[in-house]
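Weekly sync, protein design subgroup
Attendees: M.S., D.O., the rotation student, P.L. (late)

Item 1: inverse folding check
M.S. brought a backbone from last month's batch and wanted to see whether the design step gives back something sensible before we order anything. D.O. pointed out we never logged the input encoding, so this time it goes straight into the notes. Structure tokens as presented (225 positions):
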């Protein structure tokens, strides 16, 4: 028996072709490739992102994590990296999102919402109609050095559930997910997908044993209440 509606799993911070292959063999449906960020783990050069993305077989999706906020810069970066999806980790003005949609009609747009409070729910509602999906994470854009992901922290899943119920687009849940809390996360939020990085790494490297533990926990039946 499996959890009902077992979510899509994205393994982020992929740093090499070997890590990409390991994640896919473990069961990942998508890979996250992190470009230049103000802080956080997993950053690799755009050249390496392009090399890794070119090796990933369909139907596995490749996500370019970009901190750029202007459409022209994002389009330029995507045309070099050539991933299937753009993960916009900082706020992108709505006019720029519309420009992205027109310029890249076949590319998935995923807007990250960093859950800090009630204002995050409003932000999610406002942007949901302009993107293909939302990804809820635990960063903080208001710090002097922005946190745009990879914090390893959970956030208030009650707010995540409200966004999931109200936004009307698929939702990815990120932030501190690991083998011992993933069942609770799925039960609390019922996301379309899960996104993880630090919990399946050891000394900075993707860890096959931790990947197995995570996917095993995800496959467990719900606990009796």
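Designed sequence read out in the meeting:
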């Amino acid at each position: 028996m499996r959890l009902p509606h077992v979510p899509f799993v994205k393994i982020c911070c992929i740093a090499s072709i070997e890590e990409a292959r390991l994640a896919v063999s473990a069961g990942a449906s998508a890979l996250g490739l992190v470009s230049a960020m103000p802080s956080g783990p997993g950053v690799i050069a755009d050249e390496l992102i392009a090399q890794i993305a070119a090796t990933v077989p369909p139907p596995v999706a490749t996500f370019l994590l970009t901190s750029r906020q202007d459409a022209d810069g994002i389009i330029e970066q995507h045309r070099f990296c050539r991933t299937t999806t753009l993960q916009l980790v900082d706020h992108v003005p709505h006019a720029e999102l519309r420009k992205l949609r027109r310029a890249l009609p076949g590319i998935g747009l995923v807007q990250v919402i960093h859950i800090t409070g009630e204002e995050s729910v409003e932000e999610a509602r406002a942007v949901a109609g302009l993107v293909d999906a939302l990804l809820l994470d635990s960063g903080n854009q208001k710090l002097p050095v922005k946190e745009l992901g990879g914090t390893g922290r959970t956030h208030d899943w009650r707010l995540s559930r409200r966004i999931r119920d109200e936004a009307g687009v698929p939702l990815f849940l990120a932030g501190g997910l690991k083998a011992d809390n993933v069942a609770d996360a799925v039960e609390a939020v019922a996301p379309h997908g899960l996104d993880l990085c630090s919990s399946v790494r050891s000394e900075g490297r993707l860890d096959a044993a931790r990947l197995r533990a995570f996917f095993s926990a995800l496959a467990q039946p719900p606990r009796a209440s």
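Discussion: The longest helix spans residues 71-81. The mean pLDDT is 92.
Action: P.L. to compare against the previous round before Friday.
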